[in-house]
Amino acid sequence: MGLRDEITADIVEAFDSDLADAVTQFTGTRITGEGTYDPITEEWTPGTLTYTGRGVFGSFEAALVDGIQILATDEKLTALQAEVTEAPKVDDKINGRTVLAVGQDPAGASWSLQLRKV
């Protein structure tokens, strides 16, 4: 078992036990370039990609809040990569909030996302 597998197993265990009451299911959506065009109405309907996962929603440390890049109302989502069905990207919507930044830990076991209600 490699380091990434060990870290993932530890996080899954924490999500299922110590953090169980803080872990929340989420749904993400992304507008894709694929879609459908109706030649009669001359309207294009964009395609969407939907993914799911679970993670812990929290806030940013007060020292990081600068009022420009990170607002006091922004949320931080920490999600286990192995449980998210699609890699999140900037501009995706997760539970009604827009993804502004996507990061991951050095082992590639968890996502760290900055979300803003727009």
Beta content comes to: over 45%
Strand/helix succession: HEEEEEE
Secondary-structure content class:
mainly beta
What fold name stands as the CATH topology?
Thrombin, subunit H
Main beta-sheet strand count, sense and barrel state? 6 strands, antiparallel, barrel
Q: Radius of gyration, rounded? A: 17 Å
Query: What quaternary form is this?
Result: single chain
Number of DSSP helices? Answer: 1
- State the total count of DSSP E strands: 6
How many domains, as an integer? 1
Distance between the termini: 42 Å
The whole-number mean of residue pLDDT values reads 90
Task: Name the shape in a single word.
Answer: globular
- What are the segments in which pLDDT stays under 50 over at least 5 consecutive residues? none
CATH class: Mainly Beta
Q: What is the percent of helical residues?
A: 10-25%
* Cross-sheet strand order for the largest sheet: 1-2-3-6-5-4
So, CATH architecture?
Answer: Beta Barrel
Q: Tags for this entry?
A:
6 strands, 47% strand, mainly beta, 118 residues, Thrombin, subunit H, six-stranded antiparallel β-barrel
Description:
The chain has 118 residues and is mainly beta. Helices cover 12% and strands 47% of the residues. It has one domain (3-116): Thrombin, subunit H (Beta Barrel), CATH 2.40.10. It has one helix and six strands; from the N terminus they run H-E-E-E-E-E-E.
